[in-house]
Structures are given as structure tokens and as C-alpha cells.
Please model this.
Amino acid sequence: MITAAVQEREHYLNASYGIKSWLLTKDHKRIGLLYLATITLFFFLGGAFATLIRIELLTPQGGLVSSETYNKLFTMHGVAMVFFFLIPSIPASLGNFFLPMMIGARDLAFPRINLLSWYLLVIGGLFSLFAMLAGGVDTGWTFYTPYSTTYSNTWVIATALGIFVAGFSSILTGLNFIVTVHTMRAPGMTWFRLPLFVWANYATALIQVLGTPVLAVTIVLLFCERVFHIGIFDPVLGGDPVLFQHLFWFYSHPAVYIMVLPAMGVVSELISTFSRKPIFGYRIVACSSLAIAVLGFLVWGHHLFVSTQSVYAGMVFSFLSYFVAIPSAIKVFNWTATLYKGSISYATPMLYAFGFIGLFTIGGLTGLFVACLGIDVHVTDTYFVVAHFHYIMVGGTIMAYMGGLHYWWPKMTGRMYPEAWAKLSALVIFLGFNLTFFPQFILGYLGMPRRYHVYPEEFQILHVLSTAGASVLAVGYAIPMMYFIWSLRYGKLAPANPWGATGLEWQTASPPPAHNFEETPVVTHEAYDYSTVIGEVIEVG
Amino acid sequence: MASQAHVETLALREQFDTEAQQKDASTLGMWIFLITEIMFFGGMFLAYTVYRGAFPMVFAVASSSLALILGAVNTVVLLCSSFTMVLAVRAAQLGQQRAIILFLILTLLLGGVFLGVKAYEWKDKFEEHHIPGPTFHLEGVATDQQGHAQLFFSLYFAMTGLHALHMVIGVGILTFLIFQTRKGRYTADYMTPVDVAGLYWHFVDIIWIFLFPLLYLIDRHMK
Amino acid sequence: MGTLRLFPEQASTFAPEVDHLLYFLLTVAVFFTLVIFGAIFYFAVRYRRRSDQELPHVVHGGMALEIVWSVIPFGLTMVMFTWGASIFFRESRPPDDALNIYVVGKQWMWKIQHMEGQREINELHIPLGRAIKLTLTSEDVIHSFFVPAFRTKQDAVPGRYSTSWFQPTKAGKYHLFCAEYCGNRHSGMIGWIYVMEPQDYQAWLTGESPTGSLADNGAKLFQDLACVNCHKADGTGRCPSLVGLFGKTVQLSGGGSVKADEAYIRESILQPAAKVVAGYQPIMPTFQGLVTEEGVLQLVEYVKSLGPKPAAETSPAEGITGSTPGKR
Model:
């Protein structure tokens, strides 16, 4: 009965067929899926590099691969993960799919630009893939000069060009989101009725639009320096190699918030839905996203504490860095407070949300260590920093991304994923993650520098633990890949609103029709008003 | 309100409900794009500021070697082109097809003059060995300072080159608009493309208004 | 595999200071981690969903609560900032009586020169209890001089001098790492710091066969490169006399002034026309490419030795090295 109805109903997946209907689509939902496929590819590519790195580090002598290969591995791991997975991850896939639906729009404001931005990511990705296949690049994902401009003999230009092109993909997505949120909200959808996921993506879009062009111009200068040797980063000609670091981190520190803000948005949705309560302090959580976006631009110099930046600049940047801690802390406290007297479900997305809060808390608190001048001098460029940012990017962003993927999977595909397997993999990922990265905090404080192919023997125990954790983590990521594909065909058919969630995206069928809604929704309630979606209620709390 | 796509027109794409909404979106989109452009040029301006601060004397000598007259002529040309662009937008608002085409062509011509003068200036630089590279040499600067002078010219070429690239793109946009106008695409009710192209053209103009004094004028008094 | 330790050795005066700050941060971090984990766990169990029809009461956010949990963390972070910044500030201010050692990083080795002329590669011998000031630069890419047991790290950047200092408190052998990725054999750019009892250090100093002190080598270079022809000591040359120059403020032609420190001397050797002393013509040729970074350091040390003498040279702390002040 339901089965027959769903199969007959026309939706965005069966509205048209054929490769062309995908490659030339203007539908934000299909473009979201194109992004999903692309970034998944880069995720497993980056994961493969990470696996080789971890196996290599099992022994201190560096016997598995040469140091040249090792340097290329960690560089390509960083490039693939940062520029082609983490930055597009949540906004370009889940955001593309759900942001228009959540505000009650038929599409983004500029559908063709949206498609263009996917093609730019693919083209950029192909450049970088070419560089990797042709021989790789060994500068580290940070491309510090003068190593990258004068001394490296690897495929720096092709990789940088790939990142340059992918940067425009990011800019265009951000531009599209900002305009869409400003002009395309459904009747009654006021700013403070927007779901927090929309707020988070809006804040992210601001960073993409303001920060990414600076990365672009930095790459242009890097290109000119490497090809024409104009001297802008070369001390012999009067240039300043540290200027590159300033320009690079002016984008790349805010880029951390491009990665984590949308994750925070996802977690706000999950925490609310699965405790059936509006987010505690909704407005403050919404504004804290904007605060993080703005403050994120003022702290880049905390990457340069030992790079001959002036002592006073170091102090100012350390001071400002602590301001970012406040909106982040506010979010964590508000999520936790939302649970109080809620009706808490243990569905898989909620497990990921718990995991996110826990790991983000650790990642954020260790951020206080690296922002602290006295300690950062010791731990910068060690595994402590590596552990810290993996707690934010993997423990934070990827946990939220997985949570969001499970949460919206029924809406995107019309199928449920197998709950038991999903819970198992969430647990495996959480444990594997901690086993991989917690030992690295200790390694870092002990003084193990990052990007070391060969290391002193006394660090081996901790490296072995870390590698053991990485293998658990790899299993944890492989399981969802398999059951998601399985569910496309064999998963239970999903109802329109399997979680009892309030967002507009749940008020239309699963999968949604090509134009999202049969009727343009009119919003009459605040966000997260659960009395509107639950029929018969038992009041608790 | 029915949500099914209405018949799509240029003035009302299917994702929008009203023409006013579409116009708002397009205009806001262009403004945000221009903000990204400011950040893009901002990186160059920052590099210029840093090195001018580091090597003020050499930058003064290098700056004085630029062709002031040509730069000034180009400034006037570009300001005039902004004026004709405004007239084209005004004509579009009034729905005067022939006037749109006339003013767009005038703008295009002035843009062409700017690029021509620029090309001539660069050719001079080439002949004077002011192109960064092994043959670079700037008179009046000590041999060990040639690198710093070269830095000035690297920035000069990067900044004016990037600006010229934007001009070339602008010329392309104008050409496209002229053909579209000839087909009668733009009416008093739908002239958003002319409007946002105008925004872009003015932006490129404003960038030059910053480049000209920074590169050509700022150190003249030190000579 | 070695034994598992959780904290590195403390071998400098900074090490316990940094560790104490770390303990404070750890306490705060563990406390908040426990609070958050505990609250999530407790709420998740206590308020688990018992029926699918449950609808919790809406709890509106409280401004007072928001202020409390913004202000308390902010206060704590300001303690962290002040504490961390004060250590950092002291790390950036080497004492006047510190023993100067010059370090040049290059792919992939650390080249170290002592004042008395001893040279080492990837090893640094220093006396216990004496403040050591490093002046660092690089011949090629950026490197970073990292001694975990001292809790200090400083980038060595090509084209400029940076400084770092520490005072070892425990004799022993400690890791020296390059912490800034510098290419192929980055992980091979490691070495050892030997902190020695003062008498052992003396023995080591005399055991090495120095090729003349740093300043002497600089003086020789000064002759060989024909600098002396113009920079006459009595000021009659075509270029300014360098006697008594170091540490003074120099008036420049074209206005402005500059303090004659290591960076200025280095720049004047490599880019002499950049800052010309008032009253002189920019006739000096560049020595870029003609003299190595180590050579530049020797010249700098020679110019420093021409005075005026830093106060440290005559301070009582002198004598550990046993060198006579006049030798500098």
C-alpha cells in the first residue's frame, strides 16, 4: 500500500533519468548528492593516505616507505581531507540539499551557479588528483615558503591550482547560501525562526565569501613566485617568507570554522530532534555562530607564535584566540542544557551528536592549551597540535557529518538505514577515534614533532597505540559505507517524518518532490515546536 | 500559494515567486561577489603595503619611473566609461533600446582605450627592462637594491595585470549585453543583467582609483 | 620500545614553569570534560524516552545562566592568557649575561658556532646553570630549533635573525629536533644537546681544537674581503669606522635612524645600499653570495667585538667560560 504509493509517486530521483539529467541538473538536491559522491571519494582517498602513514609509523626506523614518499603521503592526506573533503563536506552536500528545504524554498537562488560550483570542485579535484598520480607533492598542506616556492621538486603548481579552482567552488556555494537565506525564505520564516543548521551555514558562508578570496590571491602569489621567481616570498630578493604564513592562515584559520560551524549546526538539529526540545538559548546559539565567524578572522597569528612574529603580536593573537573559546563554550553548555528534562532517544544520529559534543569538548579545551603562549611554544608543530585539530575536524566535523547523514538519509533516499549496524559503527568510530588520537596528545607534549618519518624509539609505544586505533577507526568508517549502499535497495521505506522532527524538510514526502513542496509552506511557529508534530502527547518534564 | 513551477521566463526563474524577489537576489549576489573581489585584491594591497613599508626609498624611485601621464589619462578614460555605464543603466530603466546599445558601445570603446594605453605602458616597461626577471634593471637604484625594485614591479604587474584581467572580463560582459539588447532581451521591467553589470564595471573602476595613487602618485613628492 | 612516560624531562628553568601552567590547564580541562560528559550521561539516562508520545515541557533559556557560563570560562581563559603570556615574555628576553651561541639551519643539519670558535654539527655542548642565548638563522628554508626538555622552540628563518634562550638545570643528553617541516630529511635533522657540569664543559672547550674565536675569524674575513680598506678604524676611510658601533643608534642618509644590532649589520653586509649612514656615499658592493651565513655571523661577531662592550662582558657571571673579555 505505502510501497505502491511511494513507487508511483514522482520525486526528485525519478523525475528524469540518464547521466545527462544528473550532470546538467539544476536541482539543489541532486547537486547535493553529486557533492556527496565526490567528497566521499576524496574521504576514502585521504583515508588511504592516512592508513599508509599510520602503518609506516608503527616502527621508528621508517622502513615501509622512503622519506620522500612519506612526506608526499602526509601532504596529500592533508590536501585531500582539508580542501576536497572537510571544507565542502557538510555545507556542499547536506547544506545544499537541506538549506533550501529548511527555509521553504524551491531551490537555491542561483541553481546554475550551484551546478557550476560542483564542476569547479571536480575540476580542482582532478588537478590535484593529477598531481598526486603524476608524482605527488611534498610541501605539507600548508605550502610554507620558501620550501614550496624554491626548494620542492614536486607537483606544487598543479596541486595549488587545484586548490585555487576548488576555492571558487567554495566561494560560489557561500554566495549562493547568503543570497538564498536573505531572499528566499518562505512566508512567516523570520530570521529567528530559522533552524540552527541554517544559521550555522549562513555564518559559514560569510567566512567562505570573505576568507577564500585571500587564499586565492595567496595561491596566485605562490604561483608567480614559483614560476617567475618574482621574489615576494624570497628573502634573497628582499621578500618575506613569513608573509606567506600570514596570508595563508588569514584564510586557513577561519577555514577551520568553515569545517566546524556547519557541524555545530547539524548537532543543534540532532540534539533538538532527539530530545524533542527546542535548543536551550536558541538565539544565543544562533548568534554564537556569527560571533565565531567574525572572531575567527582575528586570530590567525596564533599559528605564528615561534615564527619570528613580534612578541606583542603574539600576545594580541593569544588574547583574541581566547575570545573564540567563549561562543564555543556557550554552544556546548546550551546543547547539554537542552537535554535536561528532555525526551531523549538513542537513535544513531543522537549517538553521533553525543560523540560530537564529547570530542569537540576535548578538542576545544585542548585549543586553550595551544592558544596559551607559554605552552604553545613547546607544543606547536608537535603531535599535540595534530591531536588537537583531529579532535576538532574528525571528532567534531566528521562525527556531526555522519550524524547528519544518518539523520537525513531517509529524506534523501526514501530508505531507512539498518539501525543496529549503525549503532555499532557509531560506537566503533568513537572508540577507534579516541584510541587513535588521544595518545598523540601525550606524544606531542613529550616532544614528538609532526611530519617525522623516522622518530626516536621512546615514542614507539604511543605510535603503536595510535595505529591500532586507526585500524579500528577504518573499520568504523567502512561499515556505514556498506550499509548505506545496501539500504538504497533493501532498506525499509522511510515515512515523511521518521524522527518526529519539526523542520520544513520533514513536512514533505521522502524523497521530496522535484520542487520540494507540493504547497509552499507558511511558517507560523518558532523553530523546534514539537507540539505541532506529535499527535497524541504525554507531557513530561 | 501553489508551489509547482510556473512558466519560466528570464525575469522570473522557476525558483522565485516574484520578479522583485529575483531582482533582489541578483543584486545582492553581485554585491557579495564584489565583496569577495575586495578581499581578493586586498591580499595584493597588503603585500604592497608591507613591502612599501620595508623598502620606502626604492619604492619611491620605482614609483617615480612610472608613466604618470598615461596613468592619469587612463584614470580619466575609466571615469568617463563609468559615466557612460550609468547612462546605459538609466536607458535600460527607461526601456530605451537604442540608447542602451549606444552607451554600452561607448563604455566598451572607453574600456578598449584603457586596455590599449595599458598595453602601450607595458610595452615601454618591457623595453626599459622593467619586467621582473634576469634582465631586470632600474636606473637610479643600487645593484643590491635591484631585487627590491623588482619587487615593486612584480607587484605593479600583478596588480595592474589582475585589474586588466577584470577589465577584459568586463569587456566580454559588455559585448554579451550588447548582443542581448539587440535581441530585445531587456525591457524597463527586466534589466537586471545591465544593472549588475553596471555594478561590476564601477567596481573595476574603483579598484583603479586605488591603484593609480598607490602605484603612480604616492611617492612623487619624495623625488 | 623504551618505557612509557607521560611528561618529558625537565631540564631548563622554563620546564617546570611551563609544566605548572600545563597542570593548571589540565585541571580546568579535566574538570569541564567531566562536567560535560557527566551531564550528558546523566541526562541521557535520566530523561530517556519512555514513550513515543512524550512531549517535554519547553524550558526557556535563562539569561542569568548564559551569563554565568560565559563569564566563568572567560575569567579562566584570562588567567591562562596572562600566565602563558608572562612565560612567553620572559622567553623572549634573554638575560644580558647569557652565553651567545650562533646556529645556522640548513637542509638537513644544524651548524653551531661557539664564541671561542668551536664548531659543532647536530650537537650542542653547553654548561649547566648558565643562561644560553641562541641567535638563529637559516641558509635555505624555514627550520625550527626545538628542545623538548627545555620547552623552547624557535623558528630559524632565512634572511633574518631570531633569538631563543634557556638556562639548563640538569646535566644530561637531550633531544634536539627540527620542528618546522623542511623537506626530504626533515626527520633526520635532529641532534643532541649535552648539558655539562661547568668543569666538564671547560674540559670539552679546551679539548676541541678551535680555529680561533668567532670574532677572530670575523676579523680575518674582514681582511680577506678587503672590508678594511674602506672601513678604517680611525674613520679616515671612505666608509664609516665600525669601532664602537654595535648597539648605537645610527643616523641614515635620507633621514631616519636605525639601531646597530645584529640584523642591521647583516643587512648592511648583504644589502649595503638599503640603509646608508648619513654623510657617506652608497659605494659599498653587496656581499650576497660571497659570504656564507656562518661567515656573516663571524663578521657580525667581529663588529660586536669592536665595542662598545655589553655590560655582561664584565659582569661576575663571566668566567665560567674562562675567556678573557678582551678576546671578544
